[in-house]
Structures are given as C-alpha cells and as structure tokens.
Amino acid sequence: MAEGKRRTAQDRSKEWLKGREGQPVQKQRKYEDKGGEGRKWKTGQKYQHLSHEFGPLYDGASRTLLLGSFPSVKSRDAQFYYGHPQNRFWKVLAALYGEAVPASKEEKIRFVLGHHLALWDVIESCDICGSSDASIRNAVPTDLPPILAKTEINRIFINGKTAFRLYEKYQKDRTGVEAVCLPSTSPANAAWSLAGLVDAWKIIRYGE
After folding, report:
1. Element of type H or E holding 141
2. For the whole model, what pTM was predicted?
3. Given CB 3.0 to 4.6 Å as the disulfide criterion, which of 111, 136, 145, 156 pairs with 179?
4. Which of these, 194, 70, 178, lies nearest to 121 by C-alpha position?
5. Rounded to an integer, what distance in angstroms lies between the CA atom of residue 137 and that of residue 123?
C-alpha cells in the first residue's frame, strides 16, 4: 500500500513539473515613482514590482493548504517554495512526517502531494524590497477559491504573522475559511528553535 502511494505521488509530481515546462518566467521590474527614482525601503534596497513566477502546488487529493506571503529572493531564484537554505520549512515538514528532508524539487513535490498537502502564497504580485515581507505594498492577492473548489482542502494554515495579516486582509472574505497562523519558518524568526517550530506545526496533522 505504501509503495503504491509513493508511486502515485511520484507520478503526480512528474505531471506537475511537466505542466510547468515552457511557461514564461516574468522578469523582475524596478518600481519607479513619478519622479523616476526607485523607491527605497529602510534598508536602502529599492522596491521592485514583482509577480509570482511559479504556480500553486496541489492535486485533487490535497486536503491541507499551507500558505506563505510571497516568494523570497532565493525562492524566486530557485523557482520553487522555501528556497532559502536556512528556511526551516522543509525540515519541519520532514520531522512531522518522520521522513528525510527532501532535497530536490521533484522530491519536495512528491513529499507535498504524497501527504495530501498543497502549497501556495497569499500574494500574486506586489511592490517589495528584497525578501522583506514587511516592505510589501500594493499587493494583489492570489486566486484561492478555484483551488479550493478543485480539491478536498478544508484547512488552511499560514506560515508567519505577516502572511496571516495579508490573508485576513485580502483572502478571508473570498475563501470563507478561518485560517490558523503558525510561527514563521523563516531564518529571520530566530526566536523559534527548530524543535519549537515542529511542536507548533504538529497541528497540521491533527484530524488526518
């Protein structure tokens, strides 16, 4: 039974990867105000107007949706979720399910689909400085309702307070789902140890 499940998840991951082939990658564009100078965040970095460059990860069997805010610089470079090597997202999930930490993109896809999870973000496009969630301006939300309609998703968990605030502002009324805020797995959230994150995130397995 377990072997069959792994094969099924692997097949679904290959289908997802195949579906992304040939899709154009949008170039990053510097945000400019009317004066012609790029706006700057408090770090001195310039704002860029960016759109999400890779799609949601799910299939018809997905039951739990995990939402972030908007891809970080490392994730945009990797064209996949939680690409920063110090982000603990994949380590947390691996610990929760008692598996090895997935390394390649295909392994991560197989892991997510094999456990009936789904990944996406709250924001489709925005003005942002680097990877700073706190700098997000002029946000346009992703279109979540069609995904909920195509899946068995009945629970939504949010990775971090900023993403949760954005969900409450832009998505809650559209989905009708009360989401649960979990501590961020970002390396910026240094107050939380890996063990603490695993303990807090174990709620995603309740009711499976």
Report:
1. strand 137-141
2. 0.79
3. 156
4. 70
5. 11
